[in-house]
Amino acid sequence: MSTTEAHTEVPVFDADFVHDLHARYAEIRDATPVQRMVTPNGLPVWVITRYADARAALADPRLSKEVTRIRDVIAENLPPDSDHRAFDESLASHMLNMDPPDHTRLRKLVVKAFTSRRVEALRPRIEQITAGLLDDMAEKSEVDLLDAFAFPLPIQVISELVGVDESRRDDFRAWTNTLLDASDRDAAGAAAVAMAQYLTELIEHKRRQPADDLLTALIDSTEDQDRLSDKELIAMVFLLLVAGHETTVNLIANGVLHLLRDPDQWAALRADPDLVAGAVEEMLRFDGPVMHGTFRFTAEPLPVGGVEIPAGQIVWVGLAAANRDPEQFPEPERFDITRDAHGHLAFGHGIHFCLGAQLARLEAQIALRGLVERFPNLTAAGSLDDAQWRFSTLIHGLRALPVRPTGG
Ligand code: HEM
């Protein structure tokens, strides 16, 4: 085993990389499945691209999510004024940035409040919101599917589920956008402070006036006499809202892009809308929306894919690359809504497996079924070949998707 063979200073995650995401991941996977690369701002990361390695890494306790350790590596490698993401300490101390036992404790408390029953009970409301958005679309000859449909649906659902006032929803969208996209540290810092302040007020309000929503359930959630502190509540709600804002949005939009690019697939779904559940899994596998990869940190040396990653390194588990590994998914570059996409890693794997997976699936299935039934002849307004992707390491999403909503 060697650590030197896999050392390259190949830049990763620059604008070209994001634009050509899957081809670039495929090159890395074919050449050196575990490779040390460098981000545009000079941060070294070890990139894992094979399915088997990625799945094993996600479940390996030697790989930590502890955010303070990752920050130490950033501080060692980047000058203090470098352009990396700023985030407020209180918001970042949520369970996705923690290892057991802290993670186990927090996840237990939120799982108690975020039950399958609570998610399934949302079905009629999600159908109602979807129908309203489709009605609005039907009045126009051309719309941006992101603005008119893919954005408002999940945002409304997560805001209602958690209990965010209607009047603050636009603020929320603006804050999360700034936090996820900004390379401007001041803007991101200001958005984090504004959000933390609003969440503090919201928690106080729900304490005084409990409601039938997730935030009230989280406030009340207890496990062996344990409950969430105020600081933990803020970080948890922040995680849920950010995850609930930008994820399903891009699952819907990326999926529709591929369905429109391949008219046979759209026709198959139109002929049999019951294919929708499998279609959503294939959409997740083929072009998952957020986190085309996720960070970990080596707490000790880690042998993986024939190399040994030393302790104290940042590891990037390439979920999008793993989901197109031909060893796992035959003909992975073919988008096929009837294939068995089971086992994809778009929601992660192991103890941090996405808490919102059931909700995201439900929303995407309702959205897609609604769209194909209401607008069976939906077409793109413009070329689908030069779709523009947003530039972000966290999100894999389009800037816009102009479509012509046409009925039967
Ligand atoms: C974790 C993807 C929607 C809440 C994760 C992880 C992935 C992921 C890959 C694991 C990250 C890691 O291990 O480092 C997605 C995708 C979604 C989606 C692709 C939509 C298509 C949602 C929604 C919510 C949510 C709607 C909330 C309502 C969470 C939470 C975690 C998480 C709380 C952290 C779990 C933990 O640390 O134990 N998600 N997510 N996600 N997701 Fe999602």
TrEMBL record:
GO terms for molecular function: heme binding; iron ion binding; monooxygenase activity; oxidoreductase activity, acting on paired donors, with incorporation or reduction of molecular oxygen. It is found in: Cytoplasm. PROSITE patterns: CYTOCHROME_P450. GO terms for cellular component: cytoplasm. Keywords: Cytoplasm, Heme, Iron, Metal-binding, Monooxygenase, Oxidoreductase. Belongs to the cytochrome P450 family. PANTHER family: CYTOCHROME P450 YJIB-RELATED (PTHR46696:SF1), P450, PUTATIVE (EUROFUNG)-RELATED (PTHR46696). This is Cytochrome P450. It comes from Saccharopolyspora hirsuta.
